[in-house]
Amino acid sequence: MLVESRRRTLLDLVSRQGFATLEELVKATGASESTIRRDLEALDQAGAIKRTHGGAVCSGEVRSMPALDDRVTTAAEEKRAIGRAICDLIEDGETVLLDGGTTTLEVARALVGRPLQVVTNSLPIAALLASSKETDLILIGGYVYPRTGVAMGPLAVATMQGIRVRRAVLGAGGITGEGVFNSNSLLVETERQMMTCGQEILIAADHSKFGRQSLSKLCGLDEVDRVVTDSQLSDPDREMLEEAGVALTIAPINPIEDNSDHRTSARTPGSRSVSR
Predict the structure, then answer these.
(1) How many CA atoms lie within 13 A of 260 on its CB side?
(2) Could you tell me if residue 274 is left (phi over 0), alpha (psi between -120 and 50 degrees) or otherwise beta?
(3) Fewest CB atoms less than 10 Å from the CB: which of 107, 135, 170, 205?
(4) Which of 93, 75, 162, 171 is CA-nearest to residue 125?
(5) How far is it, in rounded angstroms, from Cα 193 to Cα 31?
(6) Backbone phi, then psi, for 233, in 5-degree steps?
(7) Global confidence as pTM
(8) Beta strands across the sheet bearing 49-52
(9) CB of 227 within 8 A of CB of 245?
């Protein structure tokens, strides 16, 4: 099969199913796994699909929210790196709660195809994961903010009161020594409830969010277990997190780099234990 024909077949299959495993793509084309991986890389770089753990997902299904479209290209490489790093921290079989946002959307992309139970208040994340046969999806209801497709408010809070997860992954509009901030007070109320659901609280934020405040304070740094950010984090911001006793995972922007540095990150001396 010629390269163009093979890649068209791959794209058609991924678009039709939403998600396709590497095994399915190999079977559909008769090509080797290494050839399919190269094809997927080329299609990913062209923006036609997104490579994921164990396959590929259609990139066009989750790009319909205006605010996400406006922000998705901001620090895109950093957000993808953060998504991969958080994916490495999560073990198969876990229950994970994903907050809405462009960074947590990259976490969801990295998790497609993993055997997990995922709870989310994000319609874009739900649309992405709904096509993954291996993932059990629980969608939180509530008032849906039309610009981002994120459910929030009293109904979302009430829905989560009986939910418990191994890890809750939240985004941030800003991080300073005072704590974690977001720009929507209704969303912050919802995120506070998310924090009560998680045994471990992770904040996913690229380096540009540090040193910034937003409208509403979500929590103090002492309420956060781990921050996952990219390798452009400044030394003062790194020291700020260490002094607060927050575990830090640095995600290398170049995916070819050794993953061993960001798969685990020990807590600094005196940091609090993960118990809620």
Answers:
(1) 1
(2) beta
(3) 135
(4) 171
(5) 48
(6) -60, 135
(7) 0.70
(8) 19-21, 55-58, 49-52
(9) no
